[in-house]
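A quick aside before the break. I want you to see a complete sequence-to-structure record at least once, exactly as it would be stored in a machine-readable document. Don't worry about memorizing anything.
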Amino acid sequence: MQTNLSNQTAEGNSQDFLVGDVVVYKSSLMTNELRTVVYVSEERILIADEDGRLADGTNIRPATPLELQIKKRVLDDLAKYPANALIAKGEVS
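That is the input. The structure line, written in tokens, reads:
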């Protein structure tokens, strides 16, 4: 099974992303939707939403397997209890 989990290297606090990686914003003040990396250079990362709208790829991180499964960013408190998040998703689906 192929996933779009980020192939990344850690160097200090920086992360490298590849085109096609699925990411989410780190901040809970931003959208919880998944985004896809569409452009990468040394100076800039561009990400796109489902409709192809572009945004600067700052303050992002790779989407987790759970986030890929439920197709949205996991809220910080739910990240501690992934089984509960899947149960809750099943109740509203």
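Two observations worth writing down. The chain has a mean pLDDT of 77. Helices lie at 65-70, 82-92. We'll return to this after the break.
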